[in-house]
Amino acid sequence: MSFFAILCALLIEQVRPLASHNPVYGGVLAWTRWTSRNFDAGKPHHGWVAWGLAVLVPTLMTLGIHLLLVFTLGLPFAVLWSVAVLYVTLGFRQFSHHFTDIRDALDEGDEPLARSLLAHWQGVDAAELPRSEIVRHVIEHSVIAAHRHVFGVLAWFSVLAALGLGPAGAVFYRMSEFVSRYWHHKNGAAVQPSSVSVQRAAESAWHAIDWLPARITALGFAVVGSFEEAIDCWRNDARRFPSENDGVILAATSGAVNVRLGGGALSPIPVTDPLPRAQAGDSMADGRRLDSGSTPGREPEPGHLRSVVGLVWRSVVMWMVLLALLTLARLLG
């Protein structure tokens, strides 16, 4: 039933996307703040205790509700629970409006508006960006957002659902990503900044959790794009990006659509709001990007934005078809 839960969640999310300010996100933020405030004492083991509480408690609660529904009301109600969880954790519309607005501004030749929208989305200084660099940054942020909102969630949900653990994988993946991003952001807060221990614990866990999904996403892009170029760029240019997992995805994207990615970072704009700019999307604008050179490929141009959209949607269709075939084989078997 995982395939039907994913399909329903994606369709509902396309018709009625989840608002950026909603009780679920507010509860997640409040819970993450509470765990760090009460358990971040600066020692390495405190970091893992805070991370375990922040991530595993919501995951286990999700699993508990799933099992309760299965053994009391039956599988149909458990499927409805999976749809509800996926609706919150999975979907394009949680970040795609940023991409669409910037693309429309570029199509209309309004580069100042495109720079302003990019700066607002990622909390960076984009005032001096040329057109090609605007496109490059939009592609990079959008591809990583698509991975974290769609493909990574699909991977963890599908694996744990196959083991009978319901939608726990989706919550586990998204909570791991959120606490890593939030605690890094909170490091710059004037009041109660995150300790190094809690940041290291969250980043180490997130790297391990995202290792396989990142490579699944890269492989999907290679299959539906230019396969040989994507694999070659993956092998030779992923190291240009300081984040190993993100680098694999971006290098595969670069080869799949023949576009130059990587290069100079944008300077983050200091903010006082403790909520990360990228709550509804991804976050690469955290000051950790390095100028490590660019991948091979054509200079980024607005036409590449449409190519990336096609790449992502073809990959979604490919994985949905694969899940449908696995579901059919299981039903017939």
Order of helices and strands: HHHHHHHHHHHH
**Rounded mean pLDDT score:** 86
User: How many distinct helices?
Assistant: 12
Q: Tell me the strand percentage band.
A: under 5%
Biggest sheet layout: none
Count of beta strands: 0
Distance between the termini: 15 Å
Low-confidence stretches: 271-283, 285-291
Principal-axes geometry comes out as: globular
Class from secondary-structure proportions: mainly alpha
Helix content: over 70%
- Give Rg in angstroms: 20 Å
Keywords:
mainly alpha, 12 helices, 333 residues
Structure description:
The protein has 333 residues and is mostly helical. Helix content is 71%, strand content 0%. It is built from twelve helices and no strands. It has helices at 2-15, 23-39, 44-72, 75-89, 96-107, 111-122, 131-162, 168-186, 196-224, 227-237, 244-257, 302-332. The longest helix has 32 residues, at 131-162.
Question: Concise description?
Answer:
The protein has helices at residues 2-15, 23-39, 44-72, 75-89, 96-107, 111-122, 131-162, 168-186, 196-224, 227-237, 244-257, 302-332. Mean pLDDT is 86; it is low at 271-283 and 285-291. The protein is mainly alpha-helical.
Layout of strands and helices, then pairs:
Blueprint: H1 2-15, H2 23-39, H3 44-72, H4 75-89, H5 96-107, H6 111-122, H7 131-162, H8 168-186, H9 196-224, H10 227-237, H11 244-257, H12 302-332
Helix pairs in contact: 1-4, 2-3, 3-4, 3-8, 3-9, 5-6, 5-7, 6-7, 7-8, 7-9, 7-11, 7-12, 8-9, 9-10, 9-11, 9-12, 10-11
